[in-house]
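Why do we care about 3D structure at all? Because function follows from shape, and shape follows, mostly, from sequence. That is the central idea of this module. The next example makes it concrete: a single protein chain, its amino acid sequence, and then its structure expressed as tokens.
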Amino acid sequence: MSIKGKAYIMGAFEHPLRDAPDKTTPQLHAECARGALADAGLTKDDIDGYFCAGDAPGFGALSMIDYMGLKNVRHLDSTETGGSSYIVHVGHAAEAIAAGKCSVALITLAGRPRQARGAGGRGGGFGEPAPEAGFENIYGGSTHNTYGMCAMRHMYEYGTTSEQLAWIKVAASHHAQWNEHAFLRDVVTVEDVISSRMISDPLHLLDCCVVTDGGGALIVTSPEIARSLNRPKVRVMGAGEAPKGPRGGLDLDLTHSGAVWSGPKAFGEAGVTPADIKYASIYDSFTITVLMQIEDLGFCAKGEGGRFVSDGNLISGVGKLPFNTDGGGLCNNHPTNRGGITKVIEAVRQLRGEAHPKVQVPNCDLAIAHGTGGSLGTRHGSATVILEREA
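And the structure:
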């Protein structure tokens, strides 16, 4: 069953806070839900489907449904795939709506990692460590190290340079300067990036995303509900998701992500190609994350990402592929290490024509939002959605 055109994103809200010492995580979830409902012109009594991931406290979806007083929920989903979770949930919500399981789906994300530095600066609902942890963690592995290895291997295989990676941060900063809520608003240069302190060779401090509190929410509805609302309509055209794992090292390739599988699924269902995309929201936990996903999604050939992103090709109004016009995780926000929801939110803004005038893409009628969760290049899940503005 195809979901093409069978669900619409009618509400989107990004929490304005980036540091929330006086809020609880449930409060942030509820405030995001309220904002998305107001944006759509609906009430909580209209919600009959609820979606969240591991950032939801307590018993996840069950706790949040009770906390927010959602009395009419008849379908729920708490799939957890890290940073791609909330892009997965857009696809799952569209599937549930197409199958008649619900008609108004609420998706919420929230977290306070800046208040949880004692836990590695990350908030969220991770429980027991992964099966491989006992074999890998004894060597001091970390997220930064894994992504650093991906970057180093990409440089070895394809001649990618630190200066090319730096252009991704430069592009994000050019967009973030216009976002009043962005955590980092200063425009940076390539030299600023490569002269910042080394975190995990070859990744520098400014190659890494920010750590913020905050959250966001989306309302996905059936076509019938969408037609009843006096709001711009953003149609879900295609979705894909895929896991990637090294199978004990047998398939280890640090230079590609699960986007090589999730992307074609989404493009195929939508009936479009990368050349048709006007705007791209690409998950940006690190600069190398963006470069690899741009290649794997088909915006350029494998190994050509460095040249593709050079000289401002990701900057709105300047380059070939405007990306992350809110500043993304590199400059705007990245709550709970599951920041994929903000990728969808900014894609919705662009399709509605509601992005900041300085970064709004002209005639933006087709957008992609893509995320990866887990460890890039090794064990992770990728998710892709194609969204279209309905005339």
